[in-house]
Amino acid sequence: QVQLKESGGGLVQAGGSLTLSCASSGRTFSSHAMGWFRQAPGQEREFVAAINWSDYTTLYADSVKGRFTISRDKALNTVSLKMNSLKPEDTAVYYCAAARPKLWSRMWAPSRYDYWGQGPQVTVSS
User: How many other C-beta atoms can be found within 10 angstroms of the C-beta atom of residue 7?
Assistant: First the structure.
C-alpha cells in the first residue's frame, strides 16, 4: 500500500506562486508515474500535470503549461508542483496521485492512478 501526503497549499494573491509537495510512504514503486489533479467546487476532477518516475517525461494540461512545473526527487520519494503566475481560476483542492507501473499513456485520466492523497486547498485571490 502506498500512502501519499501533500503539503504546501494556502492562500495567495493572483500573480503569486506556491509550491505543493507530495511525499509517498509505504511500499513504493520505482517506476510509478506521479500526477497532480485539482477539483474546484461543483466541477469534475481535472488533470494538472504528471511525471514519469523513471525517465522524467512530463505532461501538462494546457491551462497550466508554462506556469506550473512538476518535478520529482527519487531519493526522497517526493513530487512537487511549482505554481507560478497563479490565477483565481487555479483555485481548487489539489490532489497528488500515484500510478502503479504501467504504460505511459493517457496519464491525464484519473482512472490511470491507483493511489490518491487527501488534497490541500489552494486559493488564489484576485
Answer: 15
